[in-house]
Amino acid sequence: MSKHYARVSDYGDLLIPIGLLEKVVAECMIVNTGYIDGKDTIEKLKKIERVHIHCQEEVDAALVQQALEGNEN
């Protein structure tokens, strides 16, 4: 069976194994920050609301494309 991932979207995207999704959505938040007096500060907290499901084949294809472009991480 193919492994699936959840993409949590807001300011940036986070790709996590589907098995962690329930815990992440229940316990995590998206944070907007600002820069004040030389420090990052939390300005706004939001619940995770937008979640998209992706399969392993999509992740593999993206990794191959990155490698072809020389953008491996």
Shape: flat
Q: Which residue ranges are poorly predicted, with pLDDT under 50 across at least 5 consecutive positions?
A: none
What would you call the structural class?
Answer: alpha+beta
- Percent of residues in helical segments? 25-40%
Number of helices: 2
Rg computed from alpha carbons, rounded to a whole number of angstroms: 16 Å
* Average pLDDT for all residues: 86
Separation, N- and C-terminal Cα atoms:
26 Å
Strand content: over 45%
Q: What's the domain count?
A: 1
Task: Report the biggest beta sheet as strand number plus sense, adding barrel if it closes.
Answer: 3 strands, antiparallel
Number of strand elements: 5
What is the subunit organization of this protein? single chain
Strand line-up of the largest beta sheet: 2-1-5
What is the H-and-E element order? EEHEEEH
List the helices and strands and how they pair.
Blueprint: E1 4-9, E2 13-17, H1 21-27, E3 29-36, E4 39-47, E5 50-55, H2 56-68
Task: Walk me through this protein's architecture.
With 73 residues, this protein is α+β, with helices and mostly antiparallel strands. The chain has helices spanning 21-27, 56-68, and strands at residues 4-9, 13-17, 29-36, 39-47, 50-55. It has a three-stranded antiparallel sheet. The chain has a two-stranded antiparallel sheet with strand order 3-4. Strand 3 (29-36) and strand 4 form a beta hairpin. The mean pLDDT is 86.
